[in-house]
Amino acid sequence: MNGLASEAKAVAGIENRYMTTSRNGVYVACEELDFVWDIQDVREFDLKWREMRKQGMTTLEITKELAEYFGRDQDEVAILAMDRARRGRI
Predict the structure, then answer these.
(1) Residue 46, C-beta contacts closer than 8 angstroms, at least 6 positions apart
(2) Alpha carbons 54 and 73: distance in angstroms, whole number
(3) In contact, 42 and 83? CB cutoff 8 Å
(4) Which of 62, 30, 61, 32 is nearest to 45 (CA)?
(5) Rg of the chain taking only CA atoms, in angstroms
(6) 29 burial class (0-12, 13-18, 19+ CB within 10 angstroms)?
(7) What is the pLDDT of residues 77-87, one digit of tens each?
(8) Domain segments of the chain: what residues?
(9) pLDDT of residue 28
(10) Among 10, 68, 80, 88, which one is least packed by beta carbons within 10 Å?
(11) What is the reported pTM?
(12) pLDDT tens sequence across 29-53
């Protein structure tokens, strides 16, 4: 088996094993946003979120303030808030 045939066989094996859903084109939502957070920032986020909630701030108010505090897009903060709420952290 030559190099190209071997590579094609390897690619086919990977596709069959990991690409379980067939699609006719892919759209990546919010591709321009960054949903990766430093773990220390996540801990600080959790603390600040709980403090602001105790002060009676709404979810929207907290999201806006934390977006400014962390220098992040509001949508990035909102997704982190959903994640942390689903995990019972906030």
Answers:
(1) 84, 89, 90
(2) 24
(3) no
(4) 62
(5) 21
(6) exposed
(7) 999 999 999 99
(8) 3-86
(9) 86
(10) 88
(11) 0.73
(12) 999 999 999 999 999 999 999 999 9
